[in-house]
Specification:
transferase; single chain; 16 strands; alpha/beta; Aspartate aminotransferase family protein; Aspartate Aminotransferase, domain 2; seven-stranded mixed beta sheet; five-stranded antiparallel beta sheet; aminotransferase; about 450 residues
Length: about 450
């Protein structure tokens, strides 16, 4: 490993960072993380902080989960790679598929299609949704509906159903036939409605209206996050996702749950769909499936959808889709170990308790700091603080000011994530009550600095 001087001198010189302007990365060099232990990370200067970002929503079990590391090392020695394309497979992925079938049984999901990560999982779900309708003789069902503020990865399909212009505008034209609907976002919505239950009903009415306008027979699927994550942690009213499920079922539209963030305990329930009492037709997973230690993902498929594919006699169900690393044996070994440890630790229980403490602490900070316009959370360890320069006008804060909050918070003990005017918190699910207080005190100093 090169020394700190080399790393600082060459920081961002020869690489472009995701989700950043290349010139900005050169002008404002990224934090160089060189170590991690438990829920803490340390940088090239030895400064250690609580990681309130959880890697990138994915290190649910922290950075010291030895069973996963051991499983990866052992599998690399035994079988470092083999393809699962037609005609071959591996023992780890067979075992994992049975474990996932049991884990997702309450969600009605019984088959797995493996991917390399979240964006791949979304792309796969969109493809399978279109193919499902073609197998059934409804080839005209090609359109997708989604929510504004929703985030579904960065492939062309995912970008097309994304509800944030930042991931769309510079890459248009995107996939045709994708339409976004108002999100149940009480702080900002076109209905000027602040009551969550009433807003949910207005959004559901907008969904019905859009289906009527497009024609149900043209729509393949509706894709949504059970709790919108990267768009600013927007939890819907408890009636919303069940309402979406009912409408989709009525019109023959598949419901895709994008649970790349919410699966495996983040919401305080084992899955986000289960949190709202909904069984989707397809579920996108990744991130916490290996605790972030290996790039891996899976699309889980409902029994009813699986039967349509498996009983096909026309040949239309042949899957012309897959990735070199689909069902990677090292990823499967990591996922097996991660799933076992996730269940052993019962992480949803801790996520719910620590999430409640974090949410309450953020609400208390809002009483002190006028820069806080909205606090969102209350469903496990995913919270957001939306910052404004004028509370009455809800004017979003400028980039430089929120950047200062982030920097002061980091120097004070916590790494937090900035997305637009939002500070997003998605710490590991093994967080302690003491860790929560470190995050809150660090943010308090950050807000006080502006």
């Amino acid at each position: 490993m090169k020394d700190g001087n080399f790393l600082k001198e060459h920081n961002a010189r020869s690489m472009w960072h995701p989700m950043a302007h290349p010139a900005d990365s050169l002008a404002n060099p990224p934090t160089i993380v060189t170590g991690a232990q438990g829920v803490r990370i340390s940088d090239v200067d030895g400064h250690e902080v609580v990681d309130a970002v959880g890697g990138l929503w994915n290190v649910n079990l922290g950075f010291s989960c030895q069973p996963i590391k051991d499983a990866i090392a052992a599998q690399l020695d035994r079988l470092p790679y083999y393809s699962t394309f037609r005609g071959t497979t591996n023992d780890c992925v067979i075992e994992l598929s049975e474990e996932l079938r049991d884990f997702f049984a309450p969600d009605g999901l019984t088959r797995a299609f493996y991917t390399s990560g979240g964006s791949d999982s979304v792309e796969t779900a969109l493809r399978l949704a279109r193919q499902y309708h073609k197998i059934r003789g409804e080839a005209g069902r090609t359109k997708f509906l989604s929510l504004k503020k929703g985030y579904h990865g960065t492939h062309i399909g995912g970008a097309s159903v994304n509800g944030n212009a930042n991931f769309r505008t510079q890459y248009e034209p995107l996939l045709p036939g994708c339409y976004q609907l108002p999100a149940p976002y009480t702080y900002r919505n076109p209905f000027n409605e602040t009551d969550p239950e009433r807003l949910a009903q207005l959004c559901l009415a907008a969904l019905e209206d859009e289906i009527a306008f497009q024609g149900a027979g043209t729509i393949a699927a509706f894709i949504m996050e059970p709790v919108l994550g990267a768009g600013g942690v927007i939890p819907p009213h408890e009636s919303f996702m069940p309402g979406v499920r009912e409408i989709c079922s009525k019109h023959g539209i598949l419901l895709i749950a994008d649970e790349v963030i919410t699966a495996f305990g983040r919401t305080g329930s084992w899955t986000g769909s289960r949190h709202w009492g909904v069984q989707p037709d397809l579920m996108c997973t990744a991130k916490a499936i290996t605790n972030g230690y290996f790039p891996f993902g899976a699309v889980m498929i409902a029994e009813g959808v699986a039967q349509v594919f498996e009983k096909d006699e026309t040949g239309r169900a042949a899957i012309g889709h897959g990735y070199t690393y689909s069902g990677h044996p090292v990823g499967a070994a990591a996922a097996l170990a991660c799933l076992a440890e996730t269940k052993r630790l019962d992480v949803p229980t801790n996520a719910a308790a620590r999430g409640a403490e974090l949410f309450a602490g953020l609400q208390k900070l809002a009483e002190t700091h006028d820069v806080i316009g909205d606090v969102r959370g209350g469903h496990g360890l995913m919270c957001a603080v939306e910052l404004v320069s004028d509370r009455a006008a809800k004017t979003p804060i400028d980039k430089a000011t929120i950047g200062k909050v982030q920097e002061v918070a980091y120097q004070s003990g916590a790494m937090v994530r900035v997305s637009g005017p939002n500070i997003i918190l998605s710490p590991p699910l093994v967080l302690t009550a003491e860790d929560v207080q470190v995050i809150l005190s660090s943010l308090d100093k950050g807000f006080a600095s502006i």
